[in-house]
Amino acid sequence: MMKFASALGLFLCLSVLSARSADELPTLMTTRGKLLVDQDFSQPLKPFDGVSKGFASGFSGWRWNAVPRGGKWAVENGVFTGRETTEVKHPATASYGVLFKNVVIQCEVRMNNVPLDGRKYRSLSVRTVDAKDYVCSIHMNEGGFRITKDDNDHGGPDKSVPLGEFKTPLKLDEWHTVVFEVLGEEMVGTVDGHSLTGTHPLIGTDKHSIMFVMGVEGSVRHFKVWEAQLNPEWAKNKAKLMETE
């Protein structure tokens, strides 16, 4: 009986760890606090219906662009997909409005293998946004991914300044796991277990939304956001990470 109880306890423990690991992918800089967003796309989304005032609209929930400005979005079978419109060749953008400063963003993304229709490349980004502009991002394409500071102090000439780059083939029509950690003036971007980190004062601003940008066509699923606290192991983790960058 004792052996059975011990085996059962071990089984339950492993089951809990397995379930947790499926929901919470490893983090380097942060630990997860309160869950802010848990979106499985199992139901049709209700778009933001207030009065938009640009980046500073202060909206909550989902907002996405529409024809003819550019981009079509649809939810089906737990997947949220955005497609550029051929009329304007403008990336499809969708934003989730939630106030935050330090967060862990986790999702799965996919670049869909659809005809380019004259476009030069495919891409996909996960961005944080404050009241003035984009703040920092993970950008993906078929050649790999990079993390960026997305604006030169809000209004400068240099957009999307790279903070780090990892070159590895990212196949079309395959799901890629993303963990996006933002804490203070630093960020960590992890795609399929490969991580990059970068620092800039702009990253520490108060932010109001998370944006997905799909070049040609891309999809997202299992979107979650947590409040973030400092991981006590970050100094050690960062030292190891910097060795490999």
Automatic annotation (TrEMBL):
Protein name in UniProt: 3-keto-disaccharide hydrolase domain-containing protein
Highest taxon above the source species: Bacteria
Keyword annotations of the record: Signal
Signal peptide: 1-21
